[in-house]
Amino acid sequence: MSTSLRARSRMLLVGWSLALATAARAQQVADNPNLADLSIEELMQVRVDSVYGASKHEQKVTQAPSSVTIVTADQIRRFGYRTLADVLRGVRGFYVSDDRNYQYVGVRGFLRPGDYNSRILVTIDGHRMNDSIYDGAYAGREGVVDLELVERVEVIRGPSSSLYGSSAFFGVINIITKRGAQFDGIEMAGEGGSFDTRRGRATYGARYANGFEWLASASRYASDGASHLYFPEFDQRGSDEPRAANDGVANRLDDEDADSVFTKLSYGSWSLAAFFNDRNKQVPTASFDTIFNDPREQTRDRRSYVELSYDRRIGETIELQARAFYDDYLYSGAYPYDLAEQGAPPDPAMYRDSAIGKWFGTEWQLSAQLGSRHALQVGGEYRDNRREYQDAYYDLEPRVYDLQDVRSSDTLGLYAQDEVRLNDKLVLTAGLRFDRYSDNFGSTLNPRMGLIYSPSPTATLKALYGQAFRAPNAYERFYNAEQFNQPALNPETIKTYELVYEQYLGHRYRVGVAAYYYDVNELITQTQTALGDPYFANLDEVRANGIELEAESRFDSGARLAVSYTLQKARDDVSGLQLSSSPHHLAKLHLSVPTYREVLASLEVQYNGSSRTIRAGRADGFVTANLTLLGERLVRGLDLSLGLYNLFDARYVYPGSGDNVQDVIEQNGRTLQGKLTYRF
Known about the structure:
Blueprint: H1 3-27, H2 40-44, E1 50-51, E2 59-60, E3 68-72, H3 73-78, H4 84-89, E4 94-98, E5 103-107, E6 121-124, E7 127-128, E8 150-157, H5 161-164, E9 171-177, E10 185-193, E11 197-207, E12 213-223, E13 228-230, E14 249-251, E15 256-267, E16 270-282, E17 298-314, E18 318-338, E19 348-370, E20 374-394, E21 400-421, E22 426-437, E23 443-456, E24 459-470, H6 474-478, E25 492-505, E26 509-528, E27 534-554, E28 560-572, E29 585-594, E30 600-608, E31 611-612, E32 618-619, E33 622-635, E34 638-645, E35 653-655, E36 664-666, E37 671-679
């Protein structure tokens, strides 16, 4: 551990101690420290969150056949989360990497920078958000609703292909949006902060006397980003990189802007939802061997959908759910290259690639309560990928195409799940899904089982097993010309075994532990021929195990405290090496305390252990802290939030991907952001 990291760790330890003392002081009258003195009634006053995405129906997290974390709207406000990536950074067993273009989500030791989070499924109110080209689940500003519109984020760990099909590999992130009645009028918000960051949002929500409910929201985000970014790999004073220039400094090349629109209408059993997001990002890292310090390198991601859904109870024991949807995805990238021979005058040219995905489909589900001991679900899903388009070309006259590929495909999934109450303390959940693809890899069958034992009303032990798959996506199958000379890709598969124990102590305390083992086979990996031509192949196998510990307290004063620790080990079974971007240790602390005039002060501290890079180097471990002050209803209808991110200005890096010459990429120092929200 470096000297600076030790110093920051000592500072943080002192800060944690003071924070814990403050929380204890706030509760010394309200709380009885002796749990043995609590009455049976107090022990039974257990507040247990509910989750929908674990089984596609509402249930207590203690009864879900998965290890589940719920991040509520209250937590999002308290800790000043700005994106889904911020939310997941704070969740037990999750971590995030950033290559200054996209943010990549790691879970249980597995993260591959550059794979666009294709092994995690993200849904909004159950609507699948992974696109049809890269199978990407985007966690930044490029594809998720504004967090102010989110009621809760359900983090569901483990394989879930038995319900969701492809991509529900390591877990499912289900985002539940708010309803119009929760706004009950107009809400306006304005933000500003470091790097000339500014954002505005307008939201309207209402429920009318006839039962019609409407939510509509639009936002605009823009940021200049870091004005000067230093990359030693491009410093010609000490680097032999042919593209090195400008002393390794990228000047004003970190801009980002995004527009987002979301609306949801409901009346009776019917609901209509629509989403649109368009994000542009400059890329300062000179990825893919482009010209360094060139402002023209940028990417654009546009994501939209419209969905009509129907949810109706039939009698007392049957519920019918159905949805029909149309989705659209657009990616475009601009990459400047110098086509000149070495020593010749510069010959700049723009290389552009793009992807367009358009698909529609339907999903239905029938849930039935069969007596007092069986809860049965059967359902089906059909997706027609009407357009899967990719191209890549030099923007010359005439254009020189490396790729122009147009395809279509479809998939059908059928699933069933049965929850059987064997006795008052034991529940067995068994699920199975069949998926058929029109492509040449055919069909797949994936089961899940969970045995849930509740020795008392406040304790739960879960024994879980699941299988999942990820079908090779259109990018992996068709982007590289060499791919057509190679064997056809097979789906990746995973088997996971897990034990989870949760204990609630009264209505204030919760502790939990989870231990897991997973085995991944036929992992799709980019490689190249002897001549350097890239392609994808089923090359790797991964085995991993880990343990996760968590404790949480909710005090009557409004204070909240949560701590977690994760020990994880993930290795490539072929080489025996630790996976890149896979820290052994993760530790997190969340403390939120009411202060003067009910202003909430919230501290988030995170430790990421060191990890291996793809070039066999090391990315040092680091500690970061974020501090948020939240004043709600300071005056009528007005809220104020002030966030200090990377409070102690820690210098830290994330491993780069194969697209970067940088082995590690430095992240931002301390930043400030303020937000005003007014309701009328």
